[in-house]
Amino acid sequence: MQANEVEMDIRCVGMNFRDLLVSIGIVEGPKDTIGIEASGVITRVGSAVTHLKVGDRAITINNGCYSTRKVLHSELVVSIPGDLSFEDAATLPTVFATVIFSIINIGRLTKGESILIHSACGGVGLAALQICKMLGAEIYATVGNEEKVEYLMDNFGLPRERIFNSRNNSFLHDIMQVTSGRGVDMVLNSLSGELLHASWECVAKYGSMMEIGKRDFIGRGLLALDPFEGNRAFHGIDLAGLTRDRPGA
Predict the structure, then answer these.
(1) How many C-beta atoms lie closer than 10 Å to residue 26's C-beta?
(2) 10 Å Cβ neighbour count for 147?
């Protein structure tokens, strides 16, 4: 074990959509890389590690967490409070790391700026809603049915006129209508095909699109280039690659 590593006794592992895609061969990758988030107890600590100690309850985001024990880079491990169950804790790392890296580290969304969160009742969507409310952003969202519309209204206080349909491209017209044709400063996108292109059209001048989906990347999809004339930015987010190549990011 290296000086900057820790060993974790893994108690729970979160199952992500990426795990399914790798398992059935849609996303390339060794099968032993599935399981990208987990919770457990620290059993050994490298000499250079100062923020963790043996016995700490912790979570990690890493590849290949379907194991009983795993040695991890310490920068990919953080401690958790005693009242957070291992089951709940194992669901947190991937969705919140995705949102924080996309919206804050790369997108630099600030108070008063607007964002469209697609599939807002999914794991990443719910994490994004919490982070964006904390930032003071103007939030717009899409969901797939009326039950989810009511959930966002009841639990996050989103006005009905800011919640749109994620199942077709009608959200493009709706966003442009409620923003007087301007669009939004950021789109957090997981939709594919025609809906990805409609999402790209929702981005306002000087805005950005955070693409966390994989289908169009894998399918070598094409992207309209004319929106770049408005100083727009398009960012592809690959959290698995980030944790492998730049664990300190």
Answers:
(1) 12
(2) 9
